[in-house]
Amino acid sequence: MFRISLVTPSLNQGRFLRRTLDSVLGQSGAFEIEYLVIDGGSTDNTLSVLEEYRGRLDWLSDPDSGQVDAINKGLRICTGDVVGWLNSDDVLLGGALQRAAEIFRTQENREWVHGHCLILDEYDREIRRGVSWYKRMRCKRHSFDNLLAENYISQMTVLWRREISGEVGYLDPQFPLSFDYDLWLRLSQRSIPHFIDAPQAGYRWYPESLSGAKFREQLREQGEVAPRYAQGRSRVLRRKRILTAAAMGTYTLLSWIRGGDRGRQPSARRAGV
Question: Domain 3-261 sits in which CATH superfamily?
Answer without folding.
Answer: Spore Coat Polysaccharide Biosynthesis Protein SpsA; Chain A (3.90.550.10)
